[in-house]
Amino acid sequence: MWGWANESLPQNVTKAVARVRAFGVAESIAELKEEELPNDEYLGWGLTAVAAKVLGAKGAYRCPGKNGFVYVAYSSIEFAKSELEPVVEPKKVECPDHGTGFAAYACEHLVSNPAQLWFSREADEEHRWPDAWCDVCDAVFQEQGEWNETNESKIKIKLLCHHCYERMLSLGTSN
After folding, report:
1. What's the rounded Cα separation, in Å, for the pair 101 and 150?
2. Do the strands 132-133 and 68-74 form a parallel or antiparallel pair, or are they unpaired?
3. d(CA 164, CA 63)
4. Fewer Cβ atoms within 10 A, N terminus or C terminus of the chain?
5. Quick one: three-class SS letters along 112-128?
6. pLDDT (tens digit, 9 = 90+) per residue, 38-69?
7. What pLDDT, in 10s, does the model give residues 95-142?
């Protein structure tokens, strides 16, 4: 049974997966529109893969249960806090396309046309989605050799969720 058809699940759980049904309706894919399907592992994984793609999920998991399996697509990964070193959680934002995501920043030129050269610092554990800018903004950066109040006032930065950032980055080229 699809999550969107399961009345025992809360709406905040089924809201995202309803987009999978809408995709199935738009593309006339019967398996995405039917409330219940045969209990088949291969079909379950195949439909989970489609749902993960439609939802921009990070991965999926098959949970065993008394009456079969529950396939879960997850859209974010949180780090467990270690007592040895604190984990700095990235700022979260709400995206109209992806729901809750982590904050990422890019110049307005990359947001409007991501299929171009991207400049940024190297991604690391603390900055998994480093601030990004285009070659036009890089010329502004090069005037000072660093980002500061003088050159930051000459560009416009846009706030994105990390899903949007990753999708746009995949369309561009890295410096």
Report:
1. 30
2. unpaired
3. 29
4. C
5. HCCCCEEEECCCCCCCC
6. 888 889 899 999 999 999 899 899 988 887 78
7. 999 999 999 999 999 999 999 999 998 888 788 899 999 999 999 999
Burial 91-108 (b: 16+ CB within 10 A, else e): eebebeebbebbebbbbe
Q: What is the full DSSP assignment across 22-60?
A: HHHHHHT-HHHH-S-----HHHHHHHHHHHHHHHT-SEE
How many other β-carbons are positioned within 10 Å of the β-carbon of residue 160? 24
Cβ(58)–Cβ(72) below 8 Å: no
The CA distance from 11 to 139, in Å, is: 48
**For residue 116, which amino acid is it?**
Q
